[in-house]
Design brief:
Layout (H helix, E strand, L loop, with lengths): L1 H36 L2 H13 L1 H17 L8 H15 L13
Helix pairs in contact: 1-3, 2-3
């Protein structure tokens, strides 16, 4: 019984280590793709966005990597083009917020 537990624990640790390695490899691949397709100014802007809005930066990174890996992005993106992509993402994600005040008795 003790041997089974130890074996199960070793298998679990091995799987966790493998998952961490795969995650690290994906992150390195993503960073390499971003380094190839973004100018230094655009990478700096992305780093600033990552500090302020990490979710937006993650979404933008995934979008750029998917475009590159699918072959739809064959050029280097400069700062102005990155701003335009951010505007497009912002327009898609923007919601109309309405606040309605109802007074008691109306």
């Amino acid at each position: 019984m003790i041997k089974r537990r130890r074996l199960a624990e070793m298998v679990r640790r091995s799987e966790e280590a493998k998952e961490r390695e795969e995650e690290l490899a994906r992150e390195l691949q993503k960073q390499e793709v971003l380094r190839r397709v973004l100018t230094p100014e655009a990478r700096e802007r992305l780093a600033n966005i990552k500090l302020v809005k990490p979710e937006l930066a993650k979404h933008l990174e995934e979008y750029l990597v998917s475009l590159t890996l699918s072959g739809r992005l064959n050029k280097v993106i400069d700062d102005e083009e990155l701003k335009e992509i951010l505007r497009q993402i912002d327009e898609k994600s923007r919601r109309d917020i309405r606040i309605t005040v109802r007074r008691k008795g109306e």
